[in-house]
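Exercise 7.
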Amino acid sequence: MSTVPHSRARLAGQLSSLGVERGGVLMVHASLRAVGEVDGGAGAVAAALRDAVGPGGTLVVPAFTPENSDTSPQYLARVRGLDDRAREAVRSSMPAFDPATTAAPSMGRLSETVRRAPGALRSSHPQTSFAAVGPLAGHVVAGHHRDCHLGDDSPLGRLHELRAQVLLLGSGFGSCTAFHLAEYRVPSPPRRTYRCVVRDGDRRRWWEYEDAALDDSDFAALGADFERSDRGGAVRTAPVGSATARLFLLPAAVAFATRWLPAHRGAHS
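Solution. The predicted structure, written as tokens, is:
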């Protein structure tokens, strides 16, 4: 049995009905597979999101690049079982981060579509950059400190100030980047060392730095509790395309997570 593809106009209407604010700032995590077939593909989904926020609104997506780090889970999985020589060959082939050209394949098709959109801007962090398009894009991506993945000196800090909305479009709370901002706000957050390849003039070099130890392993449980809480009553849920979409304010999610994390991560309290 054939199905009719979802249209850009229908998606935009569903997003508006869900509560996406016209003229607002919207950060999106999306599974286009969950959204289903769309006439125009990822480009039409991105266009529908921009239609929903309107010409005065700003669309933001994560554009992370763990592929250029030898401390990331992606790298560790890639080299598992390799000998030292093979590992070094992998490290030697890892390209330096360039915010203008480096792809973010692990972030999905929507993020890549927004990153490459005319007028889109990207923050400069070599591992956890964000891409944004719209009137406030420059403000959102500016000042992303190299030693701050996802804290107040990252676009998440700007999104918190702007009271941005977060849309989980067919994806779960396990991928809710906003919760990471709370990891920086708990008392004495644990820290760790990170390494990645950066561009230093015309040469490629490794850069090592210390930052908060990020851990999303319990974000699904955190999100479930947030959604059940009084504060989580602001989580709106409705179909968009073939996907279940959740919409909420980023500051509400961060406030809840800042209380939840110390109570549920015994080693961090």
